[in-house]
Amino acid sequence: MRKSPLINVMERAVRKAGRSLLHDFGEIEQLQVSRKGPGDFVTNADLQAERILKEELQRARPDFGFVMEESGEAPGEDPESFWIIDPLDGTTNFLHGIPHFAVSVALQQHGELVAGMILEPTRDEMFFAEKGRGAFINDKRLRVSGRTRLDESVFGTGIPHIGKDGHPAFHREMQELTGRVAGIRRLGVASLDLAYVAAGRFEGFWERGLKSWDMAAGIVIVREAGGMVTDLNGGRKMLQTGGIVAGNGQMQQPLLQALKDAAKRKTA
To answer: How far is CA 7 from the centre of its chain?
Structure first.
């Protein structure tokens, strides 16, 4: 397939950051680790990958701004275009030697997500999409799964850890879903969970309390793979609310309804 100039720019940056992470992953014991909050860490690997991404993307698109997990916002001369960056999604996995983490980059222009890329360096799986051009893993086209029944479907989610809100809500959701679905997986990397929905590995994914950099790239990829994405109310304010429900065309709405049913348990 022939990649667009935009995708080529993103790929160069993401792959360079991925190589840096792989190097640091091989020397985890040497990393400097800081605690941002309960259960929330940052390493010099995160910071180095973010520097690489910013430098590479700024070189190619000097007018664009940035929204970055570690460094915050950096406005550009073009106020309508900015990169949304997570240099290391899955830091806890990374620190524990679990080979499941990702680099995630999205581009938002005029209030709309127009491109996304997620690289899992240990398996060299690069998921990417550009609005109107489809979604891909490496050079293969992606499509969401065609499953239509909850009892045949596997869903991804995130479990709130220490320092995060939403523990009671999550327990109600698990009560609602575990007896109705084929499986629920918690892999610890929201960007890759969304990529797995796009690839048909999951029929759906939900989580609350996310940041824009956790899901921006995945939203584009799921949509371009034929899936649906909403917030927990069925609207389009995922980046603002931090809650997301994604799925294939048949299972996103049943998953959303099950989550709404779980919320009613609070008042039942």
So the answer is: 17
Q: What angle do CA 67, 40, 96 make, to 5 degrees?
A: 115
Q: What is the pLDDT of residue 41?
A: 55
What is the pLDDT confidence band of residue 42, given thresholds at 50, 70 and 90? low
Which CATH architecture is the domain 5-141 placed in?
2-Layer Sandwich (3.30)
Inter-residue contact 57 to 9 (CB < 8 Å): yes
Average the pLDDT over each of 33-42, 142-151, 259-268 and give the range with the smallest value: 33-42
Mean pLDDT comparison of 44-48, 90-94, 181-185, highest-scoring range: 181-185
Q: Is 98 helix (H, G, I), strand (E, B) or coil?
A: coil
**Could you tell me where the DSSP H helices lie in 143-200?**
167-177, 190-198
Q: So where are the chain's domains?
A: 5-141, 150-264
In three-state secondary structure terms, 7 is helix
Partners of 112 in beta bridges: 109
CATH class, range 150-264: alpha beta
- Residues 114 and 112: their CA atoms lie apart, in Å, by 6
Contact status, residue 21 vs residue 45, Cβ threshold 8 Å: yes
CA distances 116 to 73, 85, 111, 126, Å, are 18, 10, 14, 11
